[in-house]
Amino acid sequence: MSRVIAVANQKGGVGKTTTSINLAASFAASGVPTLLVDCDPQSNSTSGLGLARDAERLGSYQLLMGDAEAADLLQPTEIEQLKVIPASKHLIGANIELVGVEYREYRLRHALGSVQDRFRIIVLDCPPALDLLTLNALVAANSVLVPMQAEYFALEGVSELLDTIERIRQDLNPSLFVEGVLLTMFDERTNLAQGVSSELKAYFGDLLYETAIPRNVRLAEAPSHGKPALLYDPRSKGAESYLRLAHEVLSRIQSRAVGSGQST
Q1: CA-to-CA distance for 105 and 101, rounded, in angstroms?
Q2: Whether pTM exceeds 0.90
């Protein structure tokens, strides 16, 4: 069975989609069969992996609405081990169309069941809102990876997300847990970043990844070329940081599996 990781933070501009693209690409480049599901109507993960925005192409909207099977929606990328289920602007409608549907929170979870044996990791790129799309992702996921900037207001948004995760644990997905917290756009040269990083370490403890993603021009440029950073500039600090993060995430997954006596 694959591990389903939702990349979520309702606060925009924290590097959520950048993390989804580059972490998924780094898993795949490490030889791990990986699927990225774009759950955001902005479809930035889709275009960031080289697929042109196309409202007529079938994708995550049809998946949620039950109009297509996951296996029929898989799109190849430039990385052999990485597939993507693309998004389009039609996904906005799912928030409204699913409101009256029975078991609406479980649509994505059930839809992904048919392809889970094909991938070791499934990454869900969530929209920057705690809406029905994000709720579906959190119910489908085993865990949540939370990207956040090293700024003093960062904890305010994350605390709301953590409250939501706890409510979902109680009502919809008892096994959901926080995979880890990732510092993004980190500038280690500033006293502010260092101070906030220390506070977050004290607050989150081992949940805070040792790897932090630096501010990096090449990382910012890569999406406009439809490539993850490791293809656009593999020697950039951004690409190297996401490869380190992928290894750290996989190491934690392995450690938990060994501790619980499960296979990976």
Answers
A1: 9
A2: yes
